[in-house]
Description:
Blueprint: H1 2-30, E1 47-48, H2 50-57, E2 61-65, H3 69-74, E3 75-76, E4 84-86, H4 93-109, E5 113-117, H5 124-135, E6 142-145, H6 148-154, E7 159-160
Parallel strand pairs: 1-6, 2-4, 2-5, 5-6
Antiparallel strand pairs: 3-7
Amino acid sequence: MKDSFTQLIRLGIIISALAVVLYWVEVAWFAPQRLPACVQAELPEGRVCLETVRAKFGDKVVWIDARSESDFEINHLMFNDNRMFPIRPGARRQEQVDAAVERLMQAGERGECVLVFCTNDCTASEDIARELRELQVTEAPIYVLEGGWDVLKAAGMVNFQ
């Protein structure tokens, strides 16, 4: 009986040690790659979770990529129709806005939304969304995607070249 009890204690110690090791592997390896949950109710007006867009608009989205040209060249969203437009800060910004205006005007008529995104640490998406709202080029709602490019990657929407 004493021998069985000793084995049970050893087994408990081994399982506890394994649990601690697995916990630290999870914390050190997997957790940094996980995105925090997006809670729509906690976001400021004009920002939106990808899940909210999907629930409300499905795939009826016109995408505005506000990332840098170099980020865009590395990888980007690919659609078969004209639903994705790059609009970036810089000298070509007005030219890029002009190229997207006709399609943005159609977005309201088609029941679409306009979703502006950039990398998580950039502010260009906020500036571009504000500019598009001020220009009043569309009746469609214009949002900034919370989490930006990282959320799109996590959702499997990125085309790596």
